[in-house]
UniProtKB/TrEMBL annotation:
GO molecular function: acyltransferase activity, transferring groups other than amino-acyl groups
Listed name of the protein: RimJ/RimL family protein N-acetyltransferase
The entry's keywords: Transferase
Keyword Transmembrane helix: no
PANTHER family, per database record: BLL6696 PROTEIN, N-ACETYLTRANSFERASE DOMAIN-CONTAINING PROTEIN
Species of the source: Leucobacter luti
InterPro entries: Acyl_CoA_acyltransferase (IPR016181), GNAT_dom (IPR000182)
Keyword Transferase applies: yes
Length: 208
């Protein structure tokens, strides 16, 4: 059972965002995206600096080779611009169960619907193709923005892992959330509603 793997989903396409399998070819676009908002300056997040991007891409691809991560690059569907990264991680293929994490998005892409649609695409594949029993989300206790965003997805907090891992300069408490298979239909409807709202709003702006 330990040798089991989950089949790579390939490219996941939405109306606002496209998730492509991560590649070294994405390096320059990811550097531009991470500079949009200087995301690495947020002390409670783990986001690569521009000079660290190549090493971070290679790290994620190595984890993919080991079967513990499936990493993606996120692009805006309207412009094709690279806006960030996300992954399936801590993959337990025998259950099956995965975590969605190691996610960051350029500042200009926040609040435009790309993140909820990314989660919709990832959750839909996890529950409807892989038949996962649950999908997990984890974040730093101090990252209140991330905690609120995860809760808005419809995930429920499972608990807090105290002194869970070492971050830069401190010992991090990790807040763990999850969505279970029976909860997925309701979560899917909520995410679809949010995405449709963003699409309608974008259409109104273009008409104006």
């Amino acid at each position: 059972m330990s040798g089991m793997t989950l089949a790579h989903p390939g490219t996941l396409r939405g109306r606002l965002v496209t998730l492509e399998p991560l590649s070294l070819d994405h390096h320059d676009g990811l550097v531009d995206a991470v500079r949009d908002g200087e995301l690495w300056e947020l002390w409670y997040t783990i986001v690569p600096r521009p000079e660290q991007m190549s090493a971070e891409i290679r790290r994620r691809l190595e984890l993919q080779e080991r079967g513990s991560m499936i990493p993606f690059t996120a692009r805006r569907a309207d412009t094709g611009a690279i806006i960030g990264m996300t992954t399936y991680m801590n993959i337990q293929a025998e259950t099956p169960r995965v975590e969605i994490g190691s996610t960051w998005n350029a500042a200009s892409a926040q609040g435009i619907g790309t993140n909820p649609e990314s989660k919709l695409l990832l959750l839909q594949h996890a529950f409807e193709q892989w038949h996962c029993t649950a999908v997990e989300f984890c974040t730093d206790f101090h990252n209140h923005q991330s905690r609120a965003a995860i809760a808005r997805l419809g995930a429920k907090q499972d608990g807090i892992l105290r002194a869970h891992r070492r971050a830069e300069g401190y010992l991090r408490d990790t807040v763990v959330f999850s969505i279970t298979q029976p909860e997925w239909p309701g979560v899917r409807r909520g995410l679809e509603h949010r995405v449709n709202r963003h699409i309608a709003a974008a259409g109104d702006l273009r008409l104006g």
